[in-house]
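Hi R.,

Here's the chain you asked about this morning:
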Amino acid sequence: MEDIKNILSTILNEAKLLEDKIGQIGAITKHTGEVVVPTASESLREVVKFTEESSNKIIEQIDKVEQNCHEIGKILDELINLNPINSIKEKLFFVKNKNQENMNILLKVYELFSFQDLSARQIKEVINILEDIKRTSLL
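And the predicted structure, written out as C-alpha cells:
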C-alpha cells in the first residue's frame, strides 16, 4: 500500500511540475510558437501515456490483492462453519472483519484512481490548445 501511495505522490508531483512547465511554455510560445508547441504536445502525450500505464500496473496489483481477500474470506467462512471453540472463533471473526476492512479500502483506492481519467482528459485539452496555437501561428 505504501508503494501505491509513493507512486501516486510521484504522479501528482509530476503533474504539478507539468502544470508549471505549461505555464512557462505559454510565455515562450509567444516568441517561438512553431518550435515549442510540437515538443510540448509530445511531452504531454508522454505524460498521459506514463500515467495510464502506471495506473494500469497499480490496478493490476490491487486486483490481485482483492482476489486474495476474497479467497481469505472463503477460507475464514469455512473455518468458522467448523464451529471451533469460542476463543478461536473470536479470532477468526476478527481476521474476517479486518479482511473486509481491507476490501473496503481497496474499493476506495479504485475510486481514487478516477483522477487519472480526469487528468488525461485535461492534459489532452491542453494538447489541443497548444496545437491550435501552432496552427494559428502558422497561418
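The radius of gyration is 24 Å.

Let me know if you need anything else.
M.
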